[in-house]
Each structure stands twice: as structure tokens, then as C-alpha cells.
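user:
I keep going back and forth on a fold encoding question. Separate attempts, laid side by side, tell us more than any discussion would. Would you put together a sequence-and-structure record for a protein of your own picking? Write it directly below this note and I will take it from there.

assistant:
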Amino acid sequence: MRESQIFDRASIHEIQRAANEGIYRIRGFGAKRAVPHFDDLVFLGASMSRYPLEGYRERCDTDVVLGSRFAKKPLHLKIPITIAGMSFGSLSANAKEALGRGANEVGTSTTTGDGGMTDEEREHSNQLVYQLLPSRYGMNPVHLRKADAIEVVVGQGAKPGGGGMLLGQKISKRVAAMRDLPEDIDQRSACRHPDWTGPDDLEIKIEELRELTGWEKPIYVKVGASRTYYDTLLAVKSGADVIVVDGMQGGTGATQECFIENVGIPTLPAVRLASDALKELGVHRRGVQLIVSGGIRTGADVAKAIALGADAVSIGTAALIALGDNRPDLAEEYEKLGTAPGFYEDWQAGNDPAGITTQDPELEKRLDPVKAGRRLANYLRVLTLEAQTLARACGKSHVHHLEPEDLQALTIEAAAMARVPLAGTGWIPGQNF
């Protein structure tokens, strides 16, 4: 027997499913196709030409300041890893609380999401970023003032150009009240902000937000990675303090699979394109900060993203896994849903046995926010220690001292996208011959 490269088992299954159901596939998680990623890069550790730092007696700092361009009160984070925006509705209230608890323990920020701010996440998040989305669901000027920063979401890596989705089984009484929607009815968020149509309008909107909050809060602009260079230029022109670029490996609570796998560009080239735009404007690490997200899993990913120009990274899918998503001890529960630990992706369905991507009161009880927050904090500490270890090996006393010259690529594709030499050569495809 020989499996077709084109019509493999997954393709045949999807054709059969579409023929039976007559509707496109909606799921959560993120892109599963293989694309060039940080795994395709390696660090050049110090040897004769550079000295490494001793881990037990020489410091390697990890702090980062976000929003120093215009805001009176920029965020001071102890680690360069933040928690991405994920909505209450997509996630349970206990999950939102756990994210805040975990972020607090290590001195970083978390972010709201579509649908507004819950009391739990505000109470348990010392530094909370409030998302302003095209849907305006849950938009509340009081909450804007309660936030520590504001993120204007233009796009998301899993679906640039598309809006959010929340299926009826997750529209509980509380979610419906916060979003001013009927219960149990599928909700589709707008893909375009109603208040502005271009950078000039956005500049006015950002100024309104600054006046509303006394010019205290940093203003982020988040874009899904696609035309990243120009999007970054326009976001800076509009007055953003922080640019958030989300690559195509970024997660989602619910989106059409054709979107997840086929729209946007990988995180790897997006980092360089965004940092190029900031350098072009003379603001890279001089006033405007860059946060990169989409497929960050390890401290090596963190260090490589920073070496390519990011000031910080943001995690979503990895944070949910740290809370307890896809846990092996829930194997029997996953089997009842026709899946297994490590494969569960139906975050849209509302029947998550881990109690994270659900609004079912009984399932939600399975997630202890204190224990889950502790697991997240442990994971964030490991990411930070790994990034420090790699930076020290390159002779750096701060992770922000990492630079593209510390990296080489293992594949031609990664070399071209990250614009670092192919390992063992001086060749950067497309730049020199």
C-alpha cells in the first residue's frame, strides 16, 4: 500500500466530512502544517572570539519596559514573556483567573480578549492589558480606565482579515450579559473596526483613548502577520507605543480551518519584517517596543525571537497547555470525545475535560485556578531560565543584547526568512551570492 502525498488520510477524511456535513470545519488550537520556525535556527555560542558568562555568578537580566513612547505609566515587566489576549467566553472564568495568578507570580502581564474584562482577571492580574476589538463586545470605558495598557486589535495570526467566532454552546448567561448577546446563539465578531478605516482615523482613535485614560496607559496595536513591514510602519505612524505581531502559528479559540492553515505568514519572517520597519523609522528599541507571538514554546524560541528584534514575546496556546490543556491523566475523557491527549483541538466545542475552554459549570470546576496558576508560573520561569542560559552562552548580560549575528540557519528557507547565514556559510539567500 502507498499513501498519496496529495490525497493523504487527513485530506480524504476532510473531504468525506465536508460531503457529509455540508459546512466548513471550525476548530481551535493553531496551524498544524510544517512551516519554517525557530527550530530552524541555532545560536553561535561563545568560544575564542567571545567570552560566555558564568551562570552562577554573572547576571543576565530579562526585564523589559513596554510603552515608553508616550504613556505616563509604561509597563515594567520582570520577564520578556507576556500572556496573549484570550477572551472570557472562549476560556472559563477559572482559566482567566489562573492566567492572572501565573503572570503575577513572575512579574509579567496578561491580556483580556473579546468580550470584556472579568472581575476575576482584574483582581488577580497586577498588570492587565485591555483589548479593544472590532466587535466592541464587552467594551466598557470604566474597564478601559481600570486597565494598565490598551491593545487595539487589528488582526490575529490565526486569522488576519477575519473576525472571531464563539459558538452558541459557550454563550452562557454571564457571557451573553457581558457581550449584550442572546444566550446559546452562535456569535461572529466583526473583522473590521467600525470607528476607523485607515491609519489617519486610527491616529484619532488612539488619541481619544489617551485622553480617556489621562495619557497614562501604553497603547498597543496588534496585527496578524501578513504585510508586516507596511502594517508596522502604519501602526507606528498612528501613534502606537507597542507593536504586537502575531504569526500564522498563533492560536485561536474557534476559526475556520481553511483560515488557520492558509492565511498569513509564519512568525519567523514576521519578526524581521517588523523590526526592519521599526529600524527604518529609527524607533527600534528607542521608543516603540515589538512583541512577537505565534508558536512560542521554549526559552530557545524566546531568545531567538529577541535576537531577531523582538523586545518581548507573547504566549497563548503554550499558556493553556501549562494550565492543564491536553493533560495525559484525562486520556479517558478525551477518548470519549474521539481524541487523545496531545491531539485535542476542539476548543470551540465547549466540552473541554480540562475545564479551560468551556463555560460548562461542572467542567469548569475541574480547573483549580490556584494550582493552574502555579503551573503556569513554573513554566514561565523555565522559559526565562532557558533564554538566560542561551544569552549567557553568547556572552550577553541582558537578553536584549542578543542579535541576528548570534544566529545561523539550518535550512535555506529559514536563512532567507530570518536573514541570517546558512550554517557553515556566509550565505544569506536573496542578499549575497
